[in-house]
Amino acid sequence: MSQVNTQQMGRLVAAGSKDRLDEAIEILARLEALHIIDYDGGEEGFSLGSPNPKSESVSRDLVKARAAASIVEASGPDSPIPAAPVRNALEERLPSKIDSLLADSARVDDLENDISSLTEEEEGLSMVAPLGIDIELLGGFDSLASFVGTVDSIADAKEAASAGLFFEGKNGIVAIFVRSEAQASTAAALEKAGFESIQIPEGEGSAEQRLTEVRKAKGSLQGEKLDLDARIDDWKNANGQDLVCGLEVLERDHDVLTAPVRVAVSEHAFLIDGWIVLERSEEVLSALSDVCIHSEVAPFKMEAGGGGHGHSDHHHHQEMPPIAFQERSSSRPMELLTDAVGRPAYGRIDPTIFMFVTYPIFFGIMLGDMAYGLVTMALGLLLISRSGTNEMLNLGGKFLMYIGFGTVVFGYLYAEFAGWEIFPHHAHNPAEALQILYPAIPDGAYHVWHASLPLGIELAFPFHRVVMVEDHGNLEHLILLTIYLGVIHVFLGLAIGFRDILLYGNGHGGFGFVCAFFEKGAWMVLLIGGFMFAYGFIGPDEAEGMMAPGAAIVVSATVMLMWTLYRYHGVPFPINIGLAPIEAVGMMPTVISYVRLFAVGVVGVKIAETGNEMLFANISSDEPIMAAVLVVGWLAVQFFAWGLGVFSPNIHAARLHFVEWMRQYYDSSGEAFLPFGMRSRYVEVD
């Protein structure tokens, strides 16, 4: 099927003898083709199935393995390994090793608690030990009041203790003992001295002696903890990979053994219900033929006018299938963008293949520097090389490769490298050497090629987007091109929305050509009319004739929007008279938003250009130390400009796609297709 659509789905229903349920589940797990619909218990005579008896022991082992994995945080192999040695390890040596690790970890936790308690006691004892008073004598008297703590002024503290006993330690520690009847007056006097009480340690005897004992005990526990930490590190190095692989096998086994609880069973039979990709129906039915008495796949058919809409719809109750992307290779990294928004509703256009083209273009227009593009691609290659079995990291690396390639292409078109223009017109720079990559520019010319097209479009190669070269700069041309690009991109989104409503409805019960025309066609008419009016207003004199027709088209489109709001959205007509013009005006900022393709790029290149002029241009071999400082500073500016260039254009490219473009048609209510099965990352399926 076309890459612009998600895969067609079918509903699988399979039934068989209850004693063969485990076999059926095992087959489905190996196929990884069925998105199980969990049984809700609503059918008379059926109940939820029971997990396989083996699941209890697997569950215990899984809990222990997960606990061990949280302790050591080990990594798996770079490529999947056979399952047989992993299962042998699970049956023989790994369980006892996990028990040993968990015991060591539990002991470390106990030691940390004991060390923490001793640390608190040590802090208290270290404060009172210099007083030279036994611990039990610091408080607890019947006829005496004791004040043990710190003061800001020793002199004031002595004055407050004039009616009793005064002991002074180090760092402002004092102990004062007075008769009980003088407690209140002493406390008031101590406030002047800035007295703050401390907690008296528990115990008896010399505080100094107890402090020595505590420090010795603490040192012993810390030594034991260091030994255990080292032993855990050794365990990770020796068994970490086995643990990660064993955990994956246990999780797969647990999913399969507990899967019967998702299935309807009667006294003698089972019934499995779920969604599959339609093109795999024959494969699944053939595999189940030996264990199921009955199995069939019914292709999903959308009910007219009700399919593929959002969750807010109240007019339609058809159960929708989950969404499976088409099998992709090159464009698959762009599925990360689609999933970030939410999968499209069933039957609707999948934007992934469009973003495969437009996202790198938008990013490249903004960043547009060959040096930064090459660095971005290098980072992508690094992620791919380090991804191993991590599919997400691999896709992320490919995504960086794509946007980096777009940046290199537009950097070549702009003739920019690390903030320099490759064809300088006022001063020479290191990037001038890259002129060998370009055809020769005739003397006195600024472009290899230049063309003036209708609607004020000016194209040139190289395209001088920032540097103004007399009347040969292309800054204004780029602004105009980004607006035109916005018009085309938004119009494409509206056209996709027109198609979706024509075939599957608008989510409010309407469908067909008339509904599609008023829901999306009116906006397309408005966009065309608005473009004609704007071009006639700000364009050349000969374009003034476009203003009147454009204004008439805008007015007619606004009237159509009034009817759309009334007929298809239930908005009272008097309100539409004011609401429709407001919404119509909203199309203008949507298109103008694409000017960010120009603005973001200009900011980035100016940062790099400033670093080149202020730092690189002043590097001189006559002052080696200053030259080294300037080189470091220049590199810092370049990496900052690159980092900002990767971060900011991604935000704006995502906004233009997710907000300005997708809102013209996109319905993100689709549920991801998650087939039940033995997914393999580190261990092959046995």
What is the alpha-carbon Rg in Å? 37 Å
Give the total of domains. Answer: 4
| Mean pLDDT figure | 89
Count of helical segments?
Answer: 19
Task: Explain how this protein is built.
- The protein folds into four domains: 58-113 and 217-257, no CATH class; 117-209, Alpha-Beta Plaits; 332-478 and 593-664, no CATH class; 494-591, no CATH class.
- Helices cover 54% and strands 9% of the residues.
- It has helices spanning 21-31, 55-72, 83-91, 94-128, 154-160, 183-192, 207-258, 281-288, 335-341, 352-367, 370-387, 391-414, 475-504, 513-538, 547-569, 573-585, 587-592, 596-614, 624-661, and strands spanning 9-17, 34-36, 47-48, 144-150, 165-168, 173-179, 196-197, 264-265, 269-277, 294-299, 416-417, 420-421, 449-453, 457-461.
- The longest helix is centred in the middle third of the chain and has 52 residues, at 207-258.
- 36% of the residues are buried.
- The model is unreliable at 308-316 (pLDDT under 50).
Short description:
Helix content is 54%, strand content 9%. It contains 19 helices and 14 strands.
Topology at a glance:
Elements: E1 9-17, H1 21-31, E2 34-36, E3 47-48, H2 55-72, H3 83-91, H4 94-128, E4 144-150, H5 154-160, E5 165-168, E6 173-179, H6 183-192, E7 196-197, H7 207-258, E8 264-265, E9 269-277, H8 281-288, E10 294-299, H9 335-341, H10 352-367, H11 370-387, H12 391-414, E11 416-417, E12 420-421, E13 449-453, E14 457-461, H13 475-504, H14 513-538, H15 547-569, H16 573-585, H17 587-592, H18 596-614, H19 624-661
Antiparallel strand pairs: 1-9, 1-10, 2-9, 3-8, 4-6, 4-7, 5-6, 8-9, 11-12, 13-14
Helix pairs in contact: 2-4, 2-7, 3-7, 4-7, 5-6, 10-12, 10-18, 10-19, 11-12, 13-14, 13-18, 14-15, 15-16, 18-19
